[in-house]
Amino acid sequence: MDRTITVKVNGREYERSVEPRLLLSDFLRHEIGLTGTHVGCEQGVCGACTVLVDNEAVRSCLLFAVQTNGREVATVEGLGAGPQQMHLIQHGFWEAHGLQCGFCTPGILMSLVPFLEQNPDPTEKEIRDLLSGNICRCTGYQKIVEAVQLSARLIQEKSS
Amino acid sequence: MSTRQFGRPIKRNEDPRLLTGRALFTDDVQMAGMLHVAFLRSDLAHARIRSIDVKGASRRPGVAAVYTAGDLGEFWQPGPLLVPPPPVEQLEFHQRTQTPLAKDKVRHAGEAVAMVVAESRYLAEDALDDIFVDYEPLDAVTGLEAALSEGAPLVHEDLGHNVSARVTQTKGNWTQAESEADLVIRRRFLYDRGTAAALENRGIVASWDEKSQRLTIWDTTQAPIAIRNGLASMLGLSEHQVRVIAPFIGGGFGPKIMMFYPEEVLLPWAALQLGSPLKWIEDREENFYATTQERGQVHDAAIALKSDGTILGVKDLFLHDAGAYAPYGLTVPINSQCTLLGPYVVPSYHSEFSSVFTNKPIVTPYRGAGRQHGVFVMERLLDIAAKELDIDPVEIRRRNFIPPDRFPYANEIIFQDFAPLVYDSGNYEPALERALELIGYEEFIRTEQPRREAAGERVGIAVVNYIEGTGIGPYEGARVTVEASGKVSVATGVGTQGQGHYTSFAQVVAEQIGVAVSDVHVVTGDTDLFYWGAGTFASRGAVVAGNAMHAAAARVRAKILKLAGEKLEAAEEDLELIEGRVQVKGAPQTSISLGQLAAEANPMRGAVQPGTEPGLEATEYFGPERGATASGVHAIILKVDPETFLVEIEKYVVVHDCGTVINPLILDGQIQGGVAQGIGNAFYEQLHFDDNGALLNASLMDYLLPTASDVPNIESDHVETPSPLNPLGVKGAGEAGAIPVGALFAQAIDNAFRDIGLEVREIPLSPNRLFELVTEASARETA
């Protein structure tokens, strides 16, 4: 029954034997111990489990681990080297108080990585449209929007 | 420190861990040999259990155990009553609490009937399909009035009726008020159920260590200490053998203060039986049934007024939906009863409620905790009165405000903390005026609204007031320790669910000890690190635990000054605490670091003075005599699409008074998040139960939580009226944002449809429901 898969996660290769029905979210969290990816609904609605597969934001609760065989996955743990060396998007969220309980945050950060690559100077409307795929129950979104605006600015300042 | 720590918008200590995926949530706990739990839950809301056959499930490969109520022996007990009824004279109370697994009968859909333990969650869920329960379906009771009618199905047959409690509280004389009134308005108001929907579902990990004889539990609870005490008692262990850790928690909002959830007692019990660590993580569908909900009430209310709008009295008879069990006592309906009085002088009040058992999930506090209903009823009554008396809705409120020189203001009834409802302080008019200025009230009414209405738009404005009883007792504690590293560690018993306690508490301590906020390490929610406390609820963390922090830090400061005075041979009053050092004022070269002082306060050899306490450490407790009353004003301008009846919020203003502000960044976040939940409650979120008690929209696809496209930017300002009830002068802020939003929406939508005399008397609304209400009102208007 089990299938052997090889997945590159945050640049490191993992080979595991898994059941075909194992969700990618469960694979990441419980098979390889990357618990930064959170699971809020397992129905693809809340967006908390968003990760990148080949640099595209996907819901890891709607994919099977076997579907990522031979592909590259990026999770929040790889988005910066750690609490002392965070990514600029993480800094933006820290400065702007873009999180409260922090449960939805990893999914939002991962949704933003390709978004800000493609939209380096987004409007508030574009930011809110993107964020509408991620539910946050704590913040009311206002400071998340501010955090995204700040992140975009920080990234632009660094690249200029 | 040269700059103050208290009152500044300092970014949060906890964020780097959360932002990098390194914070520990309950489902992140992994242990060798851990087994996983799944629950079989009833699809029926009301049914007798004839038999349960678990043989098939037990035989499945990978299944370690299957339990039903019959397997629990004497451990099967109804849960404790968390909050006893308050000392009110006219009170009837019938205690019925939930059990670990349903035995003879299920009383709401989603009630657990069997528990499977297996090698993985997948296998445990597979095995649920192999359990056969033979149910005898019973008629369900879902409506509040239906539950009280003759011949209604009985949720608890032994009770003989469906009344959970009846409470009457009065002040003044309603009959007299009614007879002296120029106008009496009577209306029925409805408020229906929603769910807190924290992004993180509930979860528990329980591990028994045979060698140390200790049980460790990670629990998504807002009250770890009470969980430890209760579990120790139920399991026959010493409290010192049980450690409960509430790690990072993905949102609480009230339902995570409820205890004991069936899963919360079953996991620890089974971990002891099996000797293996166990984990259960609720899924989203379970969360819709098995986590507690709020707020079905029906109010029949009346207000008596003079022709100038002065309130003479209010009468309110209401029914409260308790759900199938009532472990949380009367907190929610008592809050409704007390909060109704608002910031107004109400000389006479007669309030009478019946709390009713229904075949629906259990009701316990969810952000606002019944206060919404009271605010909705009072604000709607005032709106209708203003219309009848042809007074501006803002003006009628202004005329009835409690004047600032009348505090403390006694309302002569009993609040949820069992103390008399006395407002400690308040100053309502400045907040109202500021809100009017920010929303542009006069300008909108005089020019913008007529202009836009002439162009065919439907736009409305609203302004509502509320008060919120916060920061209630009994008490919390804190221990503050300066370590030899010079950093400060702080521990308290409350749990934290995103409120920024690691930072706001650190600010309170840093202010006293003169270190950077980032050098204060706060631990919350680990019973091994702080033994005493009650929990995080009722907007009380900053008030009660915050003041305990303040007291403990002040004592440590005194110890620092005393010891430093000896070491530096200087008078204490000549010393100052700056950037982690104690120095002589004006002579910074004469100084000693806190780390060095801490080391010297803990000598390893030699003798100390009799009575010496080692270390730079202190533990203090704080318990207020009663809650601190926060207040605020919300104002809105909204547009209703006349075709789709979707609502667009064009402007939203909050002016809030929660006393002294510890961290304005965190406070704004609390307000904004509260308003977002209020908007959900007002216009998006409603749990739809059918007549059989089945929940028809138990998923996030069908139950609509507001998204970033639905919640506007909120413009906020603060008025600071410090509380005299605590040294920091703070009042709670956690629930405020959510409380008045239903009343605000109703007023604004009425205003947008005032030409057809629309009168919204229910929350939640939705585009569909609004279309119906407008259609009915139009038909009445043209009839």
UniProtKB/TrEMBL annotation, chain B:
Keyword ATP-binding assigned to the entry: answer is no
The answer to whether keyword Oxidoreductase applies is yes
Q: Which UniProt keywords apply?
A: Molybdenum, Oxidoreductase
Check the UniProt entry and state the signal peptide residues, or none. none
Q: A GO molecular-function term, please?
A: iron ion binding
Q: Which Pfam families match?
A: Ald_Xan_dh_C (PF01315), MoCoBD_1 (PF02738), MoCoBD_2 (PF20256)
Occurrences of domain Aldehyde oxidase/xanthine dehydrogenase a/b hammerhead (ranges): 20-139
- Name the source organism: Caldilineaceae bacterium SB0661_bin_32
Kindly provide the name given to this protein in its UniProt entry.
Xanthine dehydrogenase family protein molybdopterin-binding subunit
- SMART domains, per the entry: Ald_Xan_dh_C (SM01008)
